[in-house]
């Protein structure tokens, strides 16, 4: 089987053609980072316009590069949720048009399921990864631990009480005035730490939820973000105004640039390193509890860490250490396929075809929790 995948749920236009062995036949990825940087966040209207502008060309290019005829393609998989309504709509409409034109059936793909299933398609030990397994999804919009029991069958274990971890990385990158016009904030935080030898011990930010809530499996990043903001302003000998605190805490989009920081590059790298190591220590602390619980209750032996933040090398290393401690197998998608892409959507489509659980209902679902999502077993794709 061969599937074409279309991903437009957020700020990346991703198209790919893949076969059921996990071979990527061709792929195209267009990121709209410059627009995100210009608007101080993902502006749905602007980004959906960018998807619209690039999508048809990207689909055509991907099909051309594959050297296949459209008649060789068995299905078109498209992300129909969760994500930004106008962005999802662009992808779904393009998929519907292509489907009508070519008579190729559609397959609905849940964006988060695509993030986690790609670990079965492309991680090093992918062939060994069978259900059930535990998943830490650390992305731009989510920070959640789920138990994966089968395609479309996920149980909620714990999630974030405020921001996702990716959002926290993005906001701190903006606070530190990093250039996010080419790559994401998370990517830039990791880069500046490496490039300027950022010292995570230079600033002590408290690891979230180490008090009475220590044993709870939930995440929180608002305290850590505020600590970072206070530290930055203290170093600059300036005070925080309420507007700024609101921006950091509430994720309001504004087009204005942050004020230029009066800090040396080394201090910025130290701040970035301290933030990064604390945020990741928090993920490790909570995943540790989830793994312990898992060992007691069920015989799960595999952990998938996925979503954009799973591209982070420190997180990958720390999760490997944690899995060694608990005797778990760690499954990480290749770095390139942690953030949004068309390949994971094509792969999710293939998984659904193989399991007989593909559905062609691509109704837009901007809010669509993974653990509430159960497969409708009518097989119509
Ligand atoms: P969701 O998948 O929850 O709907 P999304 O699709 O916007 O959200 P992803 O593409 O999965 O998110 O991930 C993007 C996030 O990953 C961004 O917040 C970005 O800062 C973060 N990220 C990317 N690379 C890295 C990295 N190397 N280190 C830390 N964070 C990173
Ligand atoms: Fe995503």
Automatic annotation (TrEMBL):
GO cellular component: mitochondrion
Cofactor: a divalent metal cation
UniProt entry tagged with the keyword Membrane: no
Annotated Gcp-like domain residues: 24-347
Alphabetized GO MF terms: metal ion binding; tRNA N(6)-L-threonylcarbamoyladenine synthase activity
Localization terms from the record: Mitochondrion
Cofactor binding note: Binds 1 divalent metal cation per subunit.
E.C. numbers: 2.3.1.234
Pfam family, one: TsaD
Catalytic activity: L-threonylcarbamoyladenylate + adenosine(37) in tRNA = N(6)-L-threonylcarbamoyladenosine(37) in tRNA + AMP + H(+)
Keywords assigned: Acyltransferase, Metal-binding, Mitochondrion, Transferase, tRNA processing
Listed InterPro entries: ATPase_NBD, Gcp-like_dom, KAE1/TsaD, TsaD
One Gene Ontology term from the biological process aspect of the record: tRNA threonylcarbamoyladenosine modification
Job of this protein: Required for the formation of a threonylcarbamoyl group on adenosine at position 37 (t(6)A37) in mitochondrial tRNAs that read codons beginning with adenine. Probably involved in the transfer of the threonylcarbamoyl moiety of threonylcarbamoyl-AMP (TC-AMP) to the N6 group of A37. Involved in mitochondrial genome maintenance.
Subunit structure: Homodimer.
Family: Belongs to the KAE1 / TsaD family.
Protein name, UniProt field: N(6)-L-threonylcarbamoyladenine synthase
Taxonomic lineage of the native organism: Eukaryota, Discoba, Heterolobosea, Tetramitia, Eutetramitia
